[in-house]
TrEMBL record:
Keywords: Ion channel, Ion transport, Membrane, Transmembrane, Transmembrane helix, Transport. This is Ion transporter. It comes from the Bacteria. Residues 147-220 form the Potassium channel domain.
Amino acid sequence: MQQSSRQIRLTLNRLYFGQSTSAIRFQFTLMVIDLVIILFFLAGPYLKDGPSYIVLDYCFAGWIALELIAQHFASSSTRRWLMRPMTWIDLFVLCTLLLPYWLFNFAFLRVMRIWAVVQRPIFTLMLKRLSLFDKADIVTSAINLLVFLFMLTGFVYTFFFNHMPGIEGFVDALYFTVATVTTTGFGDITLPGPLGKLTSVVAMITGISLFVRLAQAVVRPLKVTYSCPDCGLNRHDKDAVHCKACGRLLNIPDEGA
């Protein structure tokens, strides 16, 4: 029994973290399923009144539960598995799927599962195949920006626009979110009551700080990929003259060069 458990652990570890043909196929399948789950989450406001919504909801709950068990087996220890932020995100997402009506107000947090796609080894492999590995920071920042926008949109929709007719309510929530975090402030859509005003204040403050920083990281990343000839440090500030690790004089090519 112990030998069989150890064999399952090793097999899962190779599939989750290896780079063999079977591991890549396995990881690619997981990534496709992750994308389908994310699309289901984003389409939730339009599907929630349909008869098949609850069936799909529990099917995805079963899949995430199964994957959590598999990841636990693949991990070297329970403590290490519990230290992963994605484990707690998946556990919370699982709760919202198992209790869709009780925890509906927290369903917008499901979009955080986009990070599951980024953390898979095949994501890095795909960036290398597409010659985008040196732009990994830009891709990651773009994904973080997307997660942030959809989380805030989901919160606004859930607490303020949920009573509105399907698509209009969600689109209005997205429109309000983008207009607020970019501090454009058209004012044609406002959130009612004290909670609405506080939400707008938080969105504007976040827009000035986090949103601008994420958008800047997408358009103009703070660091570039350039390997130091002496110590091999691979990430440097765009305007770095010397290597932070060894002090070597650098000659980082300019973007326009």
